[in-house]
Amino acid sequence: MEVAVVGAGIGGIFGALVFRHLGYEVSLLEARDKIGGCAETFQRNGVMYNAGATTIPGLNPNYPLERLLTLLNLHDKVKKSYKLLDVVCVVSFEDGKMVRIFADPERTCEEFSQAFPIKGHRTFFSFVERTTRTLLTTPFEFNLNGGIISPLKSLFKIQNLRLLPYLPLAKKKTLSLLSAFYKNVPKELLEYFKAQTFIVGQVELEKANALALTLGIGYNFTGIAYSKIGVGGFLETLAKGLTVNFNCPVKRIERLGEGYLINIINEKIFSQKIIISFPFLENLSVFDSESYLYRYFSRFTCKLSPYSAFVVYGKIKKKVLANFTAKHYLIIGDRDSLKGTSSYLHLSILEQENGEFATFTVSTHTPIKLWANLDEEEVKKLKVELERKIIKIIIKRFEIKESDFVEVFSATPHTFKRYVHRVSLGGFSASVDTPFWSIPNNFTPFNGMYLACDHAFAGQGFMGIALGCLNLYYSLNRKAKD
Ligand SMILES: Cc1cc2nc3c(=O)[nH]c(=O)nc-3n(C[C@H](O)[C@H](O)[C@H](O)COP(=O)(O)OP(=O)(O)OC[C@H]3O[C@@H](n4cnc5c(N)ncnc54)[C@H](O)[C@@H]3O)c2cc1C
Q1: Is the CB of 174 under 6 A from ligand 1?
Q2: Same domain, 75 and 109
Q3: Same structural domain for residues 290 and 359?
């Protein structure tokens, strides 16, 4: 095998597409019988549900996902499978206030100015838009491996120099950034900043770095798409034509001469190059504990986010769609009643092509530790309790009748462990203590081993993984031309 890609989630699919585009013969090895990982779309009782990821960001011209699709000539393949949203999300506050987030930052700023008539919005939103645009649309190469040569080369690349002024944001505290724009941030507005930072940066506002807050708010201005075939359907469209070996859980990876020996149940495969695209930091047992690979990667595990997800899935009658004016909602919940979660609920609607139903996914953060310490009965009890409370909030905020719910079920961190072999569900916490240069780079110190997943630069979701894959692409493409 020339290139083996372990894991067929967002990372594995884009990693494979990058290497195939560079001319390699690529095969994916996937533990399950379908692709997608945390971004899969599954069928149940005649309808489809997004399992985790529901928004596809970075699709405006030159933003990471759009740039990657352009470089890989994939626009034609996927253009029919998504639609850019104008109203990206609606924030539902506890007092009943609804604030729309538009794809256009100016309109969003006006909306916030009306909802929270204080000074500072204009300068803050224009800072967020400008910073997000510069950071996400500037091509860069970032390689911290290979002794001191590669990091030094990274630092002095002309295009990278444009990004240098923004580096301090990765060590700056969010509250100090906010105080530069606002005299006093009203409690509700602060809750929105907290929620958005948590969702994008996997970290509480107090610990987050200013980059997490800026990119958290700026995320909505990058070109957010909705896929009517589900996020998993979007990925399946992209993966068409790739060789995917299903039911191939990789048990062991060893270095062997100029390549890697990959152990899958009773079979051993040799591959010249390997792309790690599964949540390897939670599955370090694939490396021999005495090996340099294990020792090298184990130093990063403590940087993983301590949060997992609790997700409620629902099948609703189609007529209820009239109660939703947008596809995505950020619901600021009551902290006391939603104990055991962040209290920020991300609700996404998925319409179905046929039939009289729609589905929704509501996800929230929950501490891994909380679930690890519960026995089976306690897990069941907490699951039922959280599900009930979340549904109650949806019924109240969107004026839905209980009888309009056809089916409701939920996933705990244990469910994710069972299906996708991970409980930490967002990659790294973007905290002041974990700036992006302290997480694993896409280039490893091991010849022919690359990382393309949310356990590597630049972090979670389509955006982080696309940035990581662009980083791989630019560097490898240039090397091939040199
Ligand atoms: C509830 C929730 C909501 C989210 N919402 C969004 C969103 O709206 N937008 C967004 O961009 N991101 C979102 N994210 C984040 C995003 O889903 C993940 O960061 C991303 O899907 C991770 O992709 P990945 O390829 O790195 O890993 P994974 O999705 O974990 O994929 C890894 C794959 O590897 C396979 N695998 C595991 N172990 C092995 C093994 N030993 N051998 C072979 N295969 C293996 C797994 O089965 C899986 O298919 C969300 C995440 C969650 C949990």
Answers
A1: no
A2: no
A3: no
